[in-house]
Fold each of these.
Amino acid sequence: MTTKTDFHAIQELKEKYAPKVRGIVSGEEAKAIYEVLEIDKRNNIELQNIRDMVVMIYGQWFDKSRDQYLEDKKNGVQAVDKSAEYLDAMSAIICVIDYEKFKRGIGV
């Protein structure tokens, strides 16, 4: 049984985790994702639920960040597009969750 809601776990992970290298999840990063999302405490359905919620929430954060960047650019504000960072983080988190699903013998 987990000690926090999926949303709160994902919020906590957002504050604690950002990929260091694009496209690569280090063992240390995987361990942090595993611990914050309490992957070992989740049954198969809960594991799929947290995966789905990660996709949904990180997708929303990506959209919001991208929209803000485009709005700033349109208004002549000097801005840096950081939206891809959300996609990188989401991919890394999904990789860790999918690996756990694979180890358990459930479909990825």
Amino acid sequence: MARRIELQGIVHDVLVAFISRNNDLNGYWALGQLRTWMEDEGAGTFEIPLVGESLAAINSKTFPISQRFAAMLQVLMKSQNLPSERVQDARFTVELAAFDRFNCSLRVVSELGRSFEFSRILLVRRHDPRRESRRAAAAARP
């Protein structure tokens, strides 16, 4: 059985996938769309849960993101022989750090209360379909 410290590498890998330009939602970059939603709602911080009972109450716009990364977290844990019971809480936190910057972090808390966190600050502009090109795979879906 793997040790809990393996969660640190898993947290890093999941966050890197989350901030990647390949993280798309309906063919467009998910973080650009998230920034648009946050600005439209006047929110400075947004949380996306990945485990626990808070998944049931998640925003319908971010449900596909939450579902995808919750599955990724489980796959990576399984590949390290970590049982899913070892994670008590896991959530992305996205906050506007400056005019055009996002602070994205992922925090995972083990069942013993130990916290594993990784964060990145990156440039994220508002979603604008006129300026962005849509991924071909998403455009081909019915």
Amino acid sequence: MEGYSAVCRYLYTIEEYPEVLLVYADSIRQLAIRDKSLNAFLEYYSWSGEAYFMKGDFPGGFDWKRKALVLAERTKQMGDAVAICSDIGYYYNVATRYDSARYYLKKGYI
């Protein structure tokens, strides 16, 4: 999973090739299914959200990020939950939905 995550991180950093990012995220999903790993599912949801944001599909990005947030909260991975809230808040700010941005940024102060 480390290798797939590293490629996802690189594609996110250069802000290009969202379709390739989705392919690598799906590879993480396949590992999650094989290993029954909640951490891998969390990575899959989060990277899928980033790919959708990169494509300009904000509703899709928000859906994936919210799935990641729910999983992080259920598994009490508060560090991940804070990072995901920050991501969601950032993208709501970009989308000029300031009330929603404020909600998620404040929620990230857990």
